[in-house]
Structures are given as structure tokens and as C-alpha cells.
């Protein structure tokens, strides 16, 4: 059974998972990795969820405020060998519940075109593609999504 724990970016399991995520993204993004990495700092994330199975961290996700009504989902990751078990969808659901509890109305996020598993995950969970926002505007390797939670 998967257990989802609310925490922050100081959680050592979250930090370890993000290191694995960054290593994966460095390979996928290639020359573009430095551009994306600048927007993925975790030091100030106050809303983090870590998924555990048998007391072992198996996935993570986070969010931060984007506007007074919208949050940006960040640092979603499940190691490849653990995918296909519903962990990422569970993480999204838990994040969305927390977002609603805090009074936000929706979520936005960015992922890369070289991350087809992430794109499929967001489609499966009701996210819709939107024009690239903020720092991702005009970046052809980015795909942005939104989901209304109200």
C-alpha cells in the first residue's frame, strides 16, 4: 500500500528523489538542461508530498503558488522501475487535495516533450495543454498544462 506524506523540501527522501529526477532530466534535456534546471530549485518548496511503499520513498511531487488562485506543480517523479503502479496519479491526487484545502482554484505545470510518460500522466489525470506560460513561453521543448480544481 502506498502512503503519501506531506512535508517540505528539507525532507531527505524528497532530496534523494529529486537528485534521481535531475540525473534523468540531464540525459533527456541534453544541452537544454541548464535552462530548465534554473527553474527547478527546491530550497523553498513548502508543499511537498513523498510517496512511500513499505517505508521506502517511491515518488514525489510538490507545488508552489503561481498566482493568488493558481499553483505550479513541480518536481513530480517516480523512478522508472516503479512506474505503472499508479504512484504518480496518486501523488497528483494528493497534491490537488492539498491545493484545494489551501483555497487555490487550479494547477499549472510544465514538462518536456522528451518526457512522454509525464505527458501521458497529465492527460490521464484531466490536465489540458495550454500555451506555454512565464519563462516557458516560446520554448519549443516545453509542454504546459492546466487543471481547474474548482
From TrEMBL:
<keyword id="KW-0012">Acyltransferase</keyword>
<dbReference type="InterPro" id="IPR050832">
    <property type="entry name" value="Bact_Acetyltransf"/>
</dbReference>
<dbReference type="InterPro" id="IPR016181">
    <property type="entry name" value="Acyl_CoA_acyltransferase"/>
</dbReference>
<dbReference type="GO" id="GO:0016747">
    <property type="term" value="F:acyltransferase activity, transferring groups other than amino-acyl groups"/>
</dbReference>
<dbReference type="Pfam" id="PF00583">
    <property type="entry name" value="Acetyltransf_1"/>
</dbReference>
<protein>
    <submittedName>
        <fullName>GNAT family N-acetyltransferase</fullName>
    </submittedName>
</protein>
<dbReference type="InterPro" id="IPR000182">
    <property type="entry name" value="GNAT_dom"/>
</dbReference>
<keyword id="KW-0808">Transferase</keyword>
<feature type="domain" description="N-acetyltransferase">
    <location>
        <begin position="3"/>
        <end position="150"/>
    </location>
</feature>
Amino acid at each position: 500500500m502506498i502512503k503519501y506524506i506531506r512535508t517540505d523540501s528539507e525532507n531527505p527522501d524528497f532530496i534523494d528523489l529529486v537528485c534521481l529526477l535531475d540525473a534523468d532530466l540531464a540525459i533527456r534535456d541534453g544541452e537544454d538542461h541548464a535552462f530548465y534546471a534554473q527553474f527547478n530549485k527546491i530550497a523553498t518548496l513548502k508543499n511537498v508530498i513523498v510517496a512511500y511503499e513499505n517505508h521506502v520513498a517511491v515518488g514525489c511531487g510538490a507545488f508552489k503558488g503561481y498566482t493568488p488562485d493558481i499553483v505550479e506543480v513541480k518536481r513530480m517523479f517516480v523512478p522508472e522501475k516503479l512506474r505503472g503502479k499508479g504512484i504518480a496519479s496518486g501523488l497528483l491526487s494528493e497534491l490537488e487535495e492539498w491545493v484545494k484545502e489551501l483555497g487555490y482554484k487550479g494547477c499549472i505545470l510544465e514538462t518536456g516533450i522528451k518526457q512522454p510518460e509525464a505527458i501521458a500522466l497529465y492527460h490521464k489525470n484531466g490536465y489540458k495543454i495550454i500555451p506555454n506560460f512565464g519563462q516557458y513561453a516560446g520554448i519549443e521543448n516545453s509542454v504546459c498544462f492546466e487543471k481547474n480544481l474548482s
